[in-house]
Request: fold
Amino acid sequence: MNLAAAWARFWFSNAEPLGLIATRSIAAVCSLWMVLSRPALTEVLAWPSVAGVNDDPMVRLRFLSFTAISVERLLYWLLVTCLIAVLIGALPRLCSFISAGLLYHFAAFSNGFHSPSSLHLEGWTFPLMALAIVSFAHSVDWKASPSPEWRWPVLLAQLPIVASFFFAGISKISEVGWRWFAPDNMAGLVAVMARPGEIPPWAETVHDSAGSLVALAILMLFADFAPLIAFLFRRSAWFLVPTILVTHLIVWQVFGAGTASWPMLLIFLDWDRIARWGQSLTSRRAAYNL
Amino acid sequence: MGSVLRLGTFALFLLCGSALHLIGSPRKRKAWISMLAIVMIAGYVALFFTAREAWPFIVSRQFADDSRRIPAAQRVPLFVLFSASGREWQVDPASWAPLGFDGLWRWLEDPEIPSEGRKDAARLLYEKAEPRTMPSRADERAVGLRIYWLHWRTGEVPPDAGASRRELLVEHRE
Reply:
């Protein structure tokens, strides 16, 4: 099989509509969580320009923050409304597009326009990109026939997640080498995250066990490359996605670091298979009722 | 210029993606989607090699550290409310939501901040600060905020308390 045919088969084979509906719903739920858990998001504009807050006009330009706080409050609720509309499938393409634009706009509010460098850690990136990509796709509903139009947007929405994790794994090997896995290196990384008075719950236990440190290193590197494998081989997602989620839970407990957009990993599940299970269950119930 | 370029990149991405709605032919549509995917992949590879910040197009380098190169001497900011009698309570970091701890930390690291700027910041932070744990006596209330650098040495978990020390950076008192 030549490369062009493999590419076409990968991106444009038929898929059930459930995958696209799930992707946009997960992105909407994730975004709603991000936004509603920050009800004072717009109030940052009322802060004076001290402590680095609101005092970089270039950052404000980048995030198109020129309007009055009253307008921003309205935009905040417009964002919430659009995300709910995406979730229930009302004007999903238009609402996804508006949501993506407003998430981009509001992301900088979440750190007071300090610097965008850590925004991805705060969970805005993946749902924002997914909603933008979903808005590029055709409109989809539950009863739609299988089509390539339900496949490519899901894969494209997975791409930022794959890239972010994959290059995190490559960085570990290219910048530190295989020594990154050594127990003393992992112990050092655990120790630097355990500050006085802020010690993550499992840090001490893991730090004192060479076996746990090696297992943690292997799990972390596995979690970096697993999204790529799940992207290329959908069926592997059944095993990989729960393992990545468990790894992130462990990392959170050991290092005290995590990302709020972890539910976005669910878009890697084999939604075609889930749809077929659903159909088979429905037909079995119908046969039973007959 | 960098900010405009980054905004422009995201706007161009939205524009190119939305252009799909104008393409009716399935063949041209597939070609456009393929182009979009290839450009995204190429963009991520370029971001990795150039190590540029281009949010929301990001590649992560999280935990790609050699612990031997991390200095043993570390410092973190410590935000503390104090009462007239000298009692201290750590500040609940959620007091300044949506502003996060990391943003304040990076700002405090800036060596060019004038001391007046730090005092203004301490006053603002005090006005919004809530204690992490409530004072034990109802009549005891906070009268000011201190921002310290907490110096400590990494290596052990938990860190050696005897090797940590506080350095007062700024104090605001009512």
Observations:
- The mean pLDDT of chain A is 91.
- Chain A touches chain B through 87 residues (CB under 8 Å).
